[in-house]
């Protein structure tokens, strides 16, 4: 599906996060998520916003922890989890994106026969997370240099997890870095894994399934397992903003 089919007008950094998020054709994005487990939101952030967020990486004041992937067998590269209060733009984007994805999440739960339902607003969902002992913020900023990669994984930080998350590419491919493609894999029962490589430009976001999603089969819906990662960066430096909607223990 082309970018024109999922967004009505070009996103401008002058728009509020809520206004720019509302510009997208969310029914079309929902169909993309249903069909492929992922959907691209072109130009969610302006180039200057991308640069400003990436520039936060060295500043400890914004973050609660710093992870070196190789130490944990996650791949090679590093990332930092933001602390509360989140930077204003990040917090506003998290709140603005959530309601549009909650409808997809609830439809998926129903199709998979799960009891879990998600409230319409993010504040209510976060309250549920905190009541379940999941109080640490999960939005993160990732940094890769040449030779770095992120192994296929799932971002589950507790019993309560929102089934869709968003990643925003902050760097410009072929200018800031080469390689480093976003990869999503899907394992269907009794079938080999299927890979989806998602091309992104600076400021583009991809919404994708965190863990499971439903697929319509000949005998009804069945559940498939998904993992995501980043292929090897060949040159330069790549920054990504990850927006996870549930908090962690």
Automatic annotation (TrEMBL):
Q: Which Pfam families match?
A: Oxygenase-NA
Organism's domain of life?
Bacteria
- Check the record and name the InterPro entries matching this protein: DUF2086 (IPR018655)
Q: What name does UniProt use for this protein?
A: Fe2OG dioxygenase domain-containing protein
Species of origin reads Variibacter gotjawalensis
């Amino acid at each position: 599906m082309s970018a024109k089919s999922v967004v009505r007008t070009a996103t401008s950094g002058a728009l509020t996060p809520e206004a720019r998020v509302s510009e997208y054709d969310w029914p079309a994005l929902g169909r993309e998520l249903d069909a492929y487990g992922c959907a691209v939101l072109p130009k969610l952030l302006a180039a200057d916003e991308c640069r400003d967020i990436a520039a936060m990486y060295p500043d400890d004041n914004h973050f609660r922890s710093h992870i070196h992937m190789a130490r944990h067998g996650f791949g090679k590269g590093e990332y930092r989890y933001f602390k509360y209060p989140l930077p204003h733009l990040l917090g506003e984007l998290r709140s603005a994106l959530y309601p549009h994805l909650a409808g997809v999440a609830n439809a998926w739960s129903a199709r998979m026969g799960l009891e879990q339902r998600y409230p319409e607003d993010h504040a209510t969902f976060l309250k549920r997370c905190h009541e379940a002992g999941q109080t640490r913020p999960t939005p993160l900023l990732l940094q890769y240099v040449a030779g770095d990669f992120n192994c296929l994984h799932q971002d589950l930080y507790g019993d309560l997890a929102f089934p869709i998350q968003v990643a925003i590419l902050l760097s410009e491919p072929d200018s800031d870095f080469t390689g480093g493609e976003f990869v999503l894999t899907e394992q269907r029962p009794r079938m080999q894994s299927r890979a989806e490589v998602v091309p992104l430009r600076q400021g583009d976001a991809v919404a994708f399934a965190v863990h499971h999603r439903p697929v319509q089969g000949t005998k009804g819906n069945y559940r498939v397992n998904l993992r995501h990662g980043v292929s090897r960066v060949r040159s330069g430096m790549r920054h990504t903003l990850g927006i996870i909607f549930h908090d962690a223990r």
